Amino acid sequence: MITFFARWYVLAVFALLATALPFTARVEESSAGTAVSIIDTHAHIVRGYRKRGPSPSAFQALAAMDALGVEMTFLLPPPFPEGHPGLYGRPELEAVVRQYPGRFAFLAGGASLNPIIHATPPDKVTPEVMRTFEAEAEAIAEAGAAGFGELTAEHFSSGRGNHPYESTLPDHPLFLRLADIAARRGTPIDLHMEAVPRNMPMPPRFARGSNPEKLKENISGLDRLLGHNRNARIVWAHAGWDNTGERTVQLMRALLERNPNLYMSIKLDPGGPQRTSPLGPDGGIRPDWLALLKDFSGRFVIGSDQFFDEGTERLTRARQFIDALPPDVARLVARENAKQIYRLPAQAK
The domain spanning residue 39 has which CATH number? Predict the structure, then answer.
């Protein structure tokens, strides 16, 4: 007897294929037999767990992955503060990974480490807080997480998903301690941080809700976090999509030159800001971005930031981006870099 979820899955597959088919067909026609599969290092199974369970969205994710040539997806909990109604974390994501081994991996800390960081002023980190934080980080690593994330040092409130404004120092003592644990464990940190290279007003389109009127410079703090322990691999999420318009190729190039342990995941959103996107209006790679990717070809991965309960537009755009890259760069950004940065086992082919 066909279950409800099985029927639901079939319908989801047809819907997803309808949206993904133009890109899939183009790959098959132009690169027959050579399309590069993708390891997506940053996605979310649902936006808010308490609103709906993860299983239907896992079906959606698999259908989208199969349609768009994604071999594996890393699932992260959003970096919600304590008490947020949509909070979910390691237990929920571990269940999905166990159900679909080889297709999903998980990062954790967005629902546990992130709330501790944002509830603790940098000058108020007591020994007890530090012990609690360390114990949770060690538990995440012991559980087999691919990394710590999603954590944030600067997250705007957009109204979508009822995510509040969150801000703290990138070199908060707890971030520094996590860098030490990450270095010892060989487990990367996934960091969401809007680029604020100088004190500046909040961009007008975010001047509402819980967002402040002014933003404090945070790039120097990111430099200090990266310099604290060079063995800690830090993946700065959402390159190509930023809400200040300040995460330019010039800024990223300077940071990559100074910090050999800095990596970046690329996000493309057709409905988001396009000023710093790697894709131009014609769908091709912008020249400055292409030069950056060639010069730092081992430092970028795909991190679609797709919420699988809301559609596939970001993942579809990631496929388009990979297909537009030169083949040698595409292989690295699509999958090979992820295997090295996250130290995936040999069976991740």
Answer: 3.20.20.140
